[in-house]
Request: fold
Amino acid sequence: MDCIFCRIVQKESPAEILYETYNVLAMLDIRPIHFGHALVIPKSHCVDFLTLPEQSFHDIMHATQIVARALVKTFDLEGFNVFSNNGRIAGQSVFHFHLHIVPRYVGDAIRFAPMLKSYTGRSMAENGERIRRNIQP
Ligand code: 5GP
Ligand code: ZN
Reply:
């Protein structure tokens, strides 16, 4: 398996590393939406959010908070987005799980602008019922 993020973890490919622990690594995205755009990854390979081991949750979120605080301080940010693309249809291009941290600026015109739908009648309750049937803690 050839994975660019695994190669970065192994120090076989270069990256601008911002923060690293024994199981998590944060680096600058090579093609940033804004300068400082960072990626937080688990060191052990998993494809996406659904396959991220539960033991990694805390460390990934903790590293994300630490790096986000550094971005806010460095660029004097008023806001930022944290997100993860899962699946090609959702925009995932590297199939090693990662969270994006993207600085935001007034007037930067980055918009996720879907046509919002409206639930009518019982459809919200019906959707809730269908999803609840598949909740498997
Ligand atoms: P995705 O599209 O999968 O949500 O995000 C993958 C991100 O990884 C993209 O924003 C892309 O710019 C970044 N990326 C791809 N290859 C490399 C690389 O070799 N090094 C770094 N630092 N980022 C990369
Ligand atoms: Zn990998």
